[in-house]
Amino acid sequence: MEPNALDAPDEAGITTWKVELVVSLVLLMFGVVVAFKSWQLGAGWLDDGPGAGYFPFYIGMLVCVASLVVAARTLMAGTRDHSVFVNRSQLKRVFTVLLPSLGFIVAAQFLGLYVGSFLFIAAFMVWVGHYAWARSVGIAFAVAAIAFLMFEVWFKVPLFKGSLDPLRFFGY
Q1: 35 touches 27 (CB < 8 A)
Q2: What is the 3-state secondary structure (H, E, C) of the chain?
Q3: 20 to 30 Å CA-CA from 41: which of 13, 14, 53, 68?
Q4: Cα 86 from chain centroid (whole Å)
């Protein structure tokens, strides 16, 4: 397989072993929170069976143990992986998808899923796909309209309209 020019190491970045350590510690904190909240909920065995927090407690403990093992192996490894985890061009590609997705989440809170997805699809097609505005708006409108018809009209399953509810003039 021929290496992609975008994947070529163009500069230094965060090393892989540091990323592994940080991720294992974040997952350890997550496991501790899950186990603690499950314990508060009732992680014991009751007269009628397991308490509400029984299984989540043990899942949280399993996540804690796995995270500790990964952190220990990362710290105690004789040879750490000093390769670059992600370089600038790779990170740029990640943010090319991440930032519009975060924008969709914010837009959906105010404008709802239909209008938010219309804006997301149109902007993504223009920005990332380099399609013409007219084609992007047309396809985005078609997708949003089909989703609206499918959920609201045919299945009678209302989806989130957003706090501003811009589609209220349709009566939905």
Answers
A1: no
A2: CCCCHHHCCCCCCCEHHHHHHHHHHHHHHHHHHHHHHHHHHHCCEECCEECCCHHHHHHHHHHHHHHHHHHHHHHHCCCCCCCECCCHHHHHHHHHHHHHHHHHHHHHHHHHHHHHHHHHHHHHHHHCCCCCHHHHHHHHHHHHHHHHHHHHHHCCCCCCCCCCCCCHHHCC
A3: 68
A4: 18
pLDDT digits (tens, 9 = 90+) for 81-116: 889 998 888 889 999 999 999 999 999 999 999 999
In this structure, what token pair is assigned to residue 71? 């952190």
| Conformational region of residue 84, where left means phi above 0, alpha means psi within -120 to 50, and beta covers everything else | beta
Compute how many other C-beta atoms are within 10 angstroms of the C-beta atom of residue 139. Answer: 16
125's tokens: 């097609």
Single-letter amino acid, residue 79: T
How do residues 14-71 score in pLDDT, each as one tens digit?
Answer: 889 999 999 999 999 999 999 999 999 999 888 888 989 999 999 999 999 999 999 9
Q: Structural domain boundaries of the chain?
A: 16-76, 88-170
Compute the average pLDDT of residues 141-157: 95
Give φ, ψ of 49 to 5 degrees. 130, -165
